[in-house]
Amino acid sequence: MTEKYKALVLGASGLVGKALVNQLCQDDRYSQVTCLVRSPLSKAQYHDPLNKIQAIVIDFEELQDYQGYFSVEHVFCCLGTTIKQAGSQSNFRRVDFQFVHVAAQLTRAQRAKSFVWISSVGANAKSGNFYLKVKGELENAILSMPQLDNAAAVRPSLLLGQRTQKRTAESWGIAIMKVLSPIMFGPLAKYRPVSANQVAYQMIQLQVF
């Protein structure tokens, strides 16, 4: 009999999170998909014929209080915001660094098999760009964390997909990058826009089975 896995997803209502949860629901290796969310999920956006999804509304400011939910095999973290949505650099850092870092710590504490999260192409702790600097600092913090052996980050460029919230600057960036994509080879290939489904698929492939 094939071993069944339980997954925990943080950020299930986001662009990649939705794609990921839907893929996990179709993946025979998973028997349960627990989603920690800020507000109830819209069932219409998820295809879950086997009722694998268990959605838990939590306060991410008190994430450590939900440590028991990290007692699964695989933890996926799709949390993330923009500085515009967050309202300030400090609020952005709280979501994109603090929440994800705490999730990694809880994954270690509960001895899950592996932890995969979304970073960004160009992430670098020494970057002059605040967004990329925070992403790079987070990578350094998680990948150097003792007793968290199976941690991995996906580093997408601009994400393609249908968002619930409009991001004008990002939309322009995607349009420009789509035009340039055919000539982006070699080292430039990693900057091509990528679909949320592709990122979700990669996250699953990075988990340890």
TrEMBL record:
Gene3D superfamilies documented for this protein: NAD(P)-binding Rossmann-like Domain
Domain NAD(P)-binding: 11-131
Coiled coil: none
InterPro entries: NAD(P)-bd_dom, NAD(P)-bd_dom_sf
Protein name: Semialdehyde dehydrogenase
Organism: Glaciecola nitratireducens (strain JCM 12485 / KCTC 12276 / FR1064)
